[in-house]
Fold this protein.
Amino acid sequence: MKKIFVLDTNVLLHDPQAIFAFDDNEVIIPAVVLEEIDSKKRLADELGRNARSISRLLDKMREKGHLHEGIELPSGGVLKVELNHRSFMRVQEMFGEMSNDNRILAVALNYHIEQENEPEKQSIVLVSKDVLVRIKADVLGLQAQDYLSDRVVVSSEFYTGYMTLYVHPAVIDEFYTYRFLTVNNMHLSIRLNPNEFVILRDEMGTSKSALLKVSQDGARLEPLYLSNDPVWGITARNAQQRMALELLLNDDIPLVTLSGKAGTGKTLLALAAGLLKTEDEHKYKKLLIARPVVPMGKDIGYLPGEKEEKLRPWMQPIYDNLEYLFDTKKSGDIDKILMGMGSIQVEALTYIRGRSIPGQFIIIDEAQNLTKHEVKTIVSRVGEGSKIVLMGDPEQIDHPYLDSISNGLTHIVERFKNEGTSGHMTLEKGERSKLAQLAADLL
């Protein structure tokens, strides 16, 4: 049975192509949604860009007919801008205030009431990324759901970058004898991704084990090439950190993604690897570190001072880690060091979008607050001879329209996990302090 989907504004601001995601069903855009989109189109951020995109898209769709009468979509469905079904009486009895959210609810409710009298009634589904709107819809007896079509994975299937395999001890012996294993000869029931790490354990229960990495072509299991020697004074404290350093220091892997809770060492490991590659090995001309300005608002122009002074509060976590790596003793020492070196640049993401960045080691912190489009924009700017590291905690989202599954970091991890040019590692054990680990786990 076909359904009627009523879209909330946040769905279109999250994904302007959402109108094409509902197969051959009817898609309804309440008139108030157009008003909300119009109010966002002058913004200079991602919401403004998406508002302008959906505006242009709807304008192009007008060429096929009148939107208020309904026009056919490529999938066989119908798109309609709803001007009727605006009676607010039933919703007002429940929630009183005539807000834009309640107006959208009223459209869905009036459609629902109308369909109750139809001989072949259609299900009405309100689609919103706003949890409270979905709760209100449930109170009104309406079906409501999150917008899910842009999700690349369910939370239980997050790619971790490594797996544990229990094998016959002879397989582990073979690896230590020949220093490699052929994937095809292991007759595995699961697929291994390029640059994925594999921990082999004895299925008989002994302590015999081995740590290996899948080759870039996915054909072989090979030993880790790096020893556990310190990298700019940082030594891996657990297996996942050692695997992460293997990816960070491999010049043949230009894209590395790291995820994990606070205190697992993502930023410190990436900075240590970047400093080694730029300052010691001179593999890259510059170390560029950036993070999105999201938590307290998007515009750093409201902060006093010059650009560097404005950036400092947002970049302070980066400076904290650099102070640790350089072992500075006094406040302000790190600024003098960075000024003297000249090869380390700390920026807000606002200043690197649109650039072409060749020959640099690029670190993007807090990447979970980026949208799919922003991640695409950033990674597509990476020039020849550069390496980019994106890291963050998908469970700590500050962006209003993103969650642990629909954010840019999760998206790029899933899209690139089958590519030999990328590698991913999920860091699980907190190493900052016992208190930090408890806070990450319990809070």
